[in-house]
Design a protein that fits this description.
Layout (H helix, E strand, L loop, with lengths): L1 H12 L3 E5 L9 E5 L2 E5 L8 E5 L5 H6 L3 H42 L4 H12 L3 H12 L4 H19 L7
Antiparallel strand pairs: 1-2, 3-4
Helix pairs in contact: 3-4, 4-5, 4-6
């Protein structure tokens, strides 16, 4: 608990959170910390952490008049929050499937007779959104020399290795 309070005080000192005192006979809390100048919402679901942080625009008087019925507005917020959490659960499942498929790619590459460099090249290529993006990542972050030639050689060797294992190849 002391560690949390220490971090909250640090966040308060740099203006990220405000501390508010509460005096109430019906609440045990005496202080509340609220995000300052930003909107911070947690839409996490299961083991997926999904947080949105954005600037807080000022609320105008016309905005306040637009929803005179507080209960209606609260119901809308609850429904939207449920929809966001449902989408977060779906995204979580999609991420799990993606990670499983990427792991299978890694396992297949590990089982092939490839050098460590070739395995890395292919792992990056097969997990980026495009071959061009994969080539860019390999050049910028791993210092790949002679990009297209090295990539083509790794792809040819992988195709050959897949044919030897009699596994279908989709890397044409």
């Amino acid at each position: 608990m002391q560690g949390v309070l220490k971090h909250l005080k640090k966040l308060k000192s740099i203006g990220i959170v405000d501390e508010r005192s509460i005096r109430s006979p019906i609440l045990a809390a005496r202080k509340v910390y609220v995000a300052s100048g930003v909107r911070l919402r947690d839409f996490s679901s299961g083991d997926l952490t999904l947080v949105k942080l954005s600037g807080r625009p000022p609320v105008s008087a016309s905005e306040l008049d637009r929803y005179p019925d507080l209960e209606y507005l609260a119901e809308e917020v609850i429904l939207r929050r449920r929809r966001v959490r449902d989408h977060a659960r779906r995204v979580g499942r999609m991420i799990d499937e993606l990670v499983d498929e990427e792991s299978r790619i890694g396992a297949i590459l590990e089982s092939m007779n490839l050098s460590d460099a070739e395995k890395l090249i292919l792992q990056i290529l097969f997990t980026e959104e495009s071959l061009e993006q994969g080539e860019r990542v390999l050049q910028e972050h791993f210092g790949l020399q002679d990009g297209k030639k090295s990539i083509e050689e790794a792809l040819v060797k992988a195709r050959h290795g897949l044919k030897e294992k009699r596994m279908p190849s989709r890397f044409h």
